[in-house]
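How a chain folds remains the central question behind the approach discussed here. The record that follows shows the chain in one-letter code together with its fold in token form:
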Amino acid sequence: MLKNKIAKNVTLSFLGDIFVKLIGFLVVIAIARFLGDASLGTYSFIITLVWIVFKISELGLDMIIRRDIAREKEKANNAFFSNILSLRILTAILAFLITISIIYLTQQQAEIKTLTLIAALGMVFFNISMIFRSSFYALQKMKYEVLVKIISNIVFLLGAVFLFFGFGLKM
């Protein structure tokens, strides 16, 4: 019974990671081909800035969730999740404001400001989704963890398609 659960969780996690990495690879290729050299540099700058600020804002909450819930499954209650969710929303909003402040204080072009605003807003939702991924991981509910991971990457892919292929901003 336990061996089957472990095998199922490992297989789901492995297949989910392969799928997510494949989507990421295809998105990077599409973005690089579509944007060209200069715009790819702008894209890389924006993603790197947003990613660094939001990584700092995580405060290790994902590891705390995984550790605490894995030790004591009873901690996976509404009070625990509401506290963690409140803290994550607060830190995500703070990271969003810091990212936007950095962009405006460095006097970037209007286009870079707009794209950074969009990327930072997307990271707010990504950071919040990480709470659920970490919780499912700690509870050994890998099918839900993989599902959240795949959905967030598909949303990213659709957002890229939406913006770059005529439905949003023109570069």
